[in-house]
Amino acid sequence: MLSVFLEVLRRDLLLAWRNRADVLVTLAFFTIVACLFPFGVGAEPNLLRTIAPGVLWVAALLATLLSLHRVFSQDHTDGVLEQLLLSPEPPVLWVLAKVLAHWLTTAVPLVIAAPALALLFDMTQSATVVLILSLLLGTPILSLLGGVGAALTLGLRGGGMLLALLVLPLFVPILIFGAGAVDAYLSGTGASAHLMLLGGGSLAALALAPWACAAALRIAVE
To answer: Where are the domains of the chain?
Structure first.
């Protein structure tokens, strides 16, 4: 079973490398959205520091949403998805591998780019560390829940818009706790509660989302 997981993960990472323009577009979208806010609200340092956590989290959320169609669409078009569903291996394994590949190729580059964008908003080093921790704990939930949404809308006309309508309400709590972790740290109350909630949410999504995703894929293929 582990070999199946690793093989699907390796294959999806290889496909992402071959189509790295899609990954770069997601990263560029994240950067552009974050850079536009200082032009819109002004260059007052205190204001930029105040809005920075929310802006960077919204930009990361939208960039993740932009990339969710890549999780299953190519395999569905090529007929690989049907073969995977007919194989004797548990669907949860390769679904989890695909979601992990999406997180590695989408969220990890965003986390790496976040410190540089935090400088644009004059965030302190310690606040930037909290922001990175919140992104590392929260973005897996975005990929897992987004994978369920991508499976439910697979092959539908206007699936991209429907996907956004499905997952955006589910992303709101992650956005609140992710940005709230930095705000709580800056206010002196501590970010541990918010980070623990994000970690618990990631574990809950890890336990439940792959099963829901596998069931949705069977329905979409049938």
So the answer is: 2-221
d(CA 143, CA 170): 12
Could you give the CA distance from residue 185 to residue 61 in angstroms, rounded to a whole number?
A: 21
pTM over 0.85: yes
Which tokens hold the place of 17? 């490398």
Whether the per-residue pLDDT at 54 is higher than 80: the answer is: yes
Q: How large is the average pLDDT for residues 206-215?
A: 91
Q: What is the 3-state secondary structure (H, E, C) of the chain?
A: CHHHHHHHHHHHHHHHHHCHHHHHHHHHHHHHHHHHHHHHHCCCHHHHHHHHHHHHHHHHHHHHHHHHHHCCHHHHHHCHHHHHHHCCCCHHHHHHHHHHHHHHHHHHHHHHHHHHHHHHCCCCHHHHHHHHHHHHHHHHHHHHHHHHHHHHCCCCCCHHHHHHHHHHHHHHHHHHHHHHHHHHHHHCCCCHHHHHHHHHHHHHHHHHHHHHHHHHHHHHHC
pLDDT per position as a tens digit, 98-123: 999 999 999 999 999 999 999 888 88
Question: What are the tens digits of pLDDT across the range 5-35?
Answer: 888 899 889 988 888 888 899 999 999 998 8
